[in-house]
Amino acid sequence: MFFDGLKFIVICLEVILIFNLLIVVHELGHFLAARWRGLVVEKFAIWFGKPIWSKTINGVEYRLGSIPAGGFVAIPQLAPMEAVEGESQTPREQLPPVKPLDKIIVAAAGPLFSFGLAFAMALIVWFVGKPQSEIDSTTIGFVKEGGPAYQSGLRPGDQILTVDGKPVKHFLSGTDSVKWRIVRSEGQTIPMTVLREGQEVSIDCGWTKPETSSWRRPALREIQIGPRIVPGVGFVVRGSLADKAGFRAEDLVTDLNGEPIFNLSDMGPIIDANRGKEVVFTVDRGAESLQLPITLPPPSADGMPVNFGIEWGRTTLAYPNPFHQVKDAATSIFRMVGALLSPASDVKAAHFSGPVGIMRLYYQIFESPDGWRIALAFSVLINVNLALLNLLPFPVLDGGHITLAIIEAIRRKPISVRVLEVVQTGCALLLIGFMLYLTFYDVGDIVASNAPVPVSKSN
C-alpha cells in the first residue's frame, strides 16, 4: 500500500512537471519577445487562481497560482485581458504606443517556442526511441458475432487496406488509423477494402453507435472489430494472477491446455470452458519454453471476463525522424479540426480534451513501462497542438492578437480601446466557458471510465 501511494505521488509530480513545462516554454516565448521589443510586462504567471507564491523583480510580478493548469504573461499593450489576467497595474492611457509589428512578433513568439519545444522533444524521441506495440497493424483479430462488421462479411485475418476510400496504416492510434477513419466517415455505410487470402475484397460495412448518458461525451461510430493481437506479454500487474503464476514481460503464449494459440482471441473459448479449473499456459521466454499453471476464478454472475493482470502486446523501439513527428502531429490536428467543422461529421467539440483530460492521459502514460518515452512522443503532439490552436484568429488567442494587429496596421491607427475591451472580455468568457465545458466531460470520463455501455442505435 505504501509503495502504491508513493508511486501515485511520483506519477502526479511527473505529470505536473511535464504539463507545466509545455505552458512555461510557450509563455516564455511571449515574455522574452515582449522584453526584446520593449513592451511593458506586468506578470509572469504559472497556473491560474489565487497566488500561492509571488515575487516582483524589475517591475515584473512572478507568481504561482493555486489552480494547476495553464498560465499567462500579462502584457497590457498587446490587448486588454483583464478577464483572464486581472486588472492592469498601469492605466491604459499612460502606456506608450506599440507598433503593430511588435505586437505580431510578441504574439507569434509563444507558438514559435512551442514548435521549438516540439522539435526538441522529437529529437530526443529520435535518439532514445518510441515504444511501438506489436498490435499496431491493420489486421483484424476479432469480429463481434452479429455486429455490423460481422453482418457485412468482415472476418478475423482480414487485413484492412482502406476505410472510406482512405488508406490506413494503424488500427487504433492516429488519424491514419482504422478507428479514426470509421469515426470520421459520414455515409450510410463505410466502404472498406481488405486483403483476404491474397485477394483484395471490397465491403460496404454498416456501423453502430453506443448509447451514452447525457453527461458523457457523444457516442462515435464503431463497427465492433478489434486488432489482431499476438499473445505476447507487454506488462504484468504486480500481485495479479499472471504475476503469481510467473508471467513476465516479453513472454509469448504459444499453447493453452494443449491447444496452439496464434491470436489473443484464440484463448477466450478455452478460458470460458475452464472457469473454476486449472489451465496451463505454455510460454516462450527467450530460448526457454515454460509451463505456467493458473487456477481460473469461477464464472461470475455478470459474465465478466477473467482479469489476468496482463497488458497484451509486446513493444519494440522505433526511431521516427523528428521532422516526420512534427509533420504527423500537425496533420492530425488539421484532420481533427476539419472533422469538427464538417456538418455531417460525428466529431464534435465535446470530443476534444481540456487540461484535466490531458493530464489524466499523461498519468495513464506514466503508469506504463517506458512511460517517459511515450510521454515525450505524446508531448510532441501536444506542443504542436498548442502552437497551431493558439494561431487561430480568435480574440484572446495569439492568432487573435496577430489578426487585430494586422487590422490596426491596415487602418493605420489603433483600434478603439472600448471595442477591444468588449471583444477581448467577451471572447475570454467564451474561452473560459469552453474550458469548463470540456472539463465537465473530462471529469465524466474519469467517473465512468469502467462503466459498461449498451448498444442500441445502429445502421
What Rg do the Cα atoms give? 26 Å
SS content category:
alpha+beta
Overall 3D shape: elongated
From the N-terminal CA to the C-terminal CA, the straight-line distance is 48 Å
* Amount of helix: 40-55%
Number of domains: 3
Indicate the proportion of strand residues: 15-25%
Give me the number of helical elements. Answer: 12
Strand order in space, largest sheet: 2-3-1-4
Uncertain spans: 450-459
Largest sheet: 4 strands, mixed
Overall pLDDT score: 86
DSSP E strands, number: 20
Question: Which properties best describe this structure?
Answer:
459 residues; alpha+beta; Pdz3 Domain; 3 domains; 4-stranded mixed beta sheet; 4-stranded antiparallel beta sheet; elongated; disordered C terminus
Explain what this protein looks like in three dimensions.
This protein has 459 residues and is of the alpha+beta class. It has three domains: 77-132 and 313-459, no CATH class; 135-229, Roll (Pdz3 Domain); 233-311, Pdz3 Domain, CATH 2.30.42.10. The protein has helices at 2-36, 82-85, 100-128, 148-152, 178-184, 241-245, 267-273, 322-341, 355-367, 371-390, 398-411, 417-447, and strands at residues 43-48, 53-57, 60-64, 67-74, 130-133, 140-143, 159-163, 166-167, 190-196, 199-205, 208-210, 225-227, 233-236, 252-256, 259-260, 278-285, 288-295, 310-312, 315-318, 455-458. The strands form seven sheets. A four-stranded mixed sheet has the order 2-3-1-4, covered by helices on one side. A hairpin with a 2-residue loop joins β14 and β15 (259-260). The longest helix has 35 residues, at 2-36. It is elongated and about 85 Å long. The relative contact order is 0.14.
